[in-house]
Amino acid sequence: MVGAGWTDAGTVTSGDAIRNADLQSLGVASTNLDGTPQLVRNLEVAGAHTCFVGKLEA
């Protein structure tokens, strides 16, 4: 979150400010808790410890 550094996703709420891949500040409109199990992977990046993960636009 903007001004708070890395934040657990479960603590993000409506009105919070987050950054996109271009470092633009965006406001969170709403959140939804989905209890469906999800496959996750841990990723460690040598050197810089910031990265963006998501879909590339065509």
Structure description:
The mean pLDDT is 82. The chain has a two-stranded antiparallel ribbon. It is mostly loops and 58 residues long. The protein has a domain at 1-31. It has no helices and two strands. It starts with 16 loop residues before the first strand and ends in a 31-residue tail after the last strand.
Unreliable spans:
none
Shape: globular
* Cα end-to-end separation: 27 Å
Radius of gyration: 13 Å
Total beta-strand segments: 2
Helix segment tally = 0
- Helix fraction, binned, reads under 10%
Q: Strand order within the widest sheet?
A: 1-2
Coarse structural class: little secondary structure
The fraction of residues assigned to DSSP E strands is: 5-15%
> How would you characterize the largest beta sheet?
2 strands, antiparallel
SSE order in H/E notation? EE
* Global mean pLDDT: 82
Keywords, separated by commas or semicolons:
globular, little secondary structure, two-stranded antiparallel sheet, 58 residues
